[in-house]
Amino acid sequence: MDRERQERLFHILGIIWRAALVLFVVVAAFVVLRYTIPLIYPFIFAWLIAFMIEPLVRFLETKWRIPRWGGTTLSLLLVLGTLSALLTLIIVRIINELTRLVEFIQNNIDKISERVADWFVSQGTVFTHLETTIQTSLEQLERFTGTVQSGELTESLQNSLQSLAELITGFITGFIAGLGKFLGNMPFILTVLVVIVLGSFFISKNWRRLHRNVRNLLPRVVRDSGDMVLTDLKKALVGFVRAQLTLITLTAIIILVGLMILRVNYALTLALVIGLVDLLPYLGVGAVMVPWIVYLFIAGNYKLAIGLTVLYIITIVVRQFVEPKVYASNIGLDPLLTLIALFVGLQLFGFIGLIVGPTLMVILMALYRARVFHDTLDYIAGRSANRA
């Protein structure tokens, strides 16, 4: 009996020891990553770039018989040149459009407020009851404060619109100022970019040797799990990009067809812009469509406003039906898990968490499919890991 108790005690102590060891490894890995990532992040980006261009480098090396260093150079020039051109065009276009938008808001806010006030007044009997209710409320407020004057409703409306315009202008001005600060840090940014480019070149040039050396340093169990995780992660991330491209393409096509039916000018350009805006988390198509529809209602263009409203509803409904299937077929990640990952990432890491959250969820799912968690629990419990 004593021997059974001793064995049970040793077994429990062994479980506690192995659990403490696993916890120590996890905490140590977190601490190491926490303090080393700020020092090595250029090389992480360099590895990602080398990982992305590896298929192209291998193609140039095998099909066109180009040396490894030549294929790496051509691939980097192609990728970096394309990205640089796109970023330059986007930044210049954003600055121009935001500057024009600020000038438009500042020059037309009075006209817009008058039009909004006239729109309310022109509705006649539709707003009679509402106007009576507001007037009664103002008269009651006047009894207590004595500050309500004739025409205060219109003045209040104008002040609200003025405040909104100032808020929008301040946001845009702050964005431009932040962009100016970014350009002011350009020497440091260029230095980091040079390190990333050189790191990408050397990592890609020696990809096979580095891959072989890293694999030789790892235990066999870790190598097997790592291969499964990397394969699953690559498939999930490529699928995520494919799913996003599919969704924004579908959105752009629906918007293009709708705008052409409504005979809106520049339908193709607007459809492309709205399709790109659809990438914005939480906002999507509504970031363009809703303000546009509201403005058309205020301007009195009810026919186009109603048409755009119907088009907006159709777009949202189609996406709601298609999105789960697209994510399920390309990523294998449940839409609910994606939503949870977005919200948790936003709460923990801010705006960048909208990218970090789903990425971490994909990594966790890859670890789960590779049975990393199962093997860890088996190790803690003292059981031998059994793979299917």
From TrEMBL:
Keywords: Membrane, Transmembrane, Transmembrane helix. GO terms for cellular component: membrane. The chain crosses the membrane at residues 12-33, 39-60, 72-95, 182-203, 243-262, 268-297, 304-322, 342-368. It is found in: Membrane. One of its GO terms (biological process) is transmembrane transport. It comes from the Bacteria. Its main location: membrane. InterPro entries: AI-2E-like, YtvI-like. It is a multi-pass membrane protein. Belongs to the autoinducer-2 exporter (AI-2E) (TC 2.A.86) family. This is Sporulation integral membrane protein YtvI. It comes from Novibacillus thermophilus. The lineage of its organism: Bacteria, Bacillati, Bacillota, Bacilli, Bacillales.
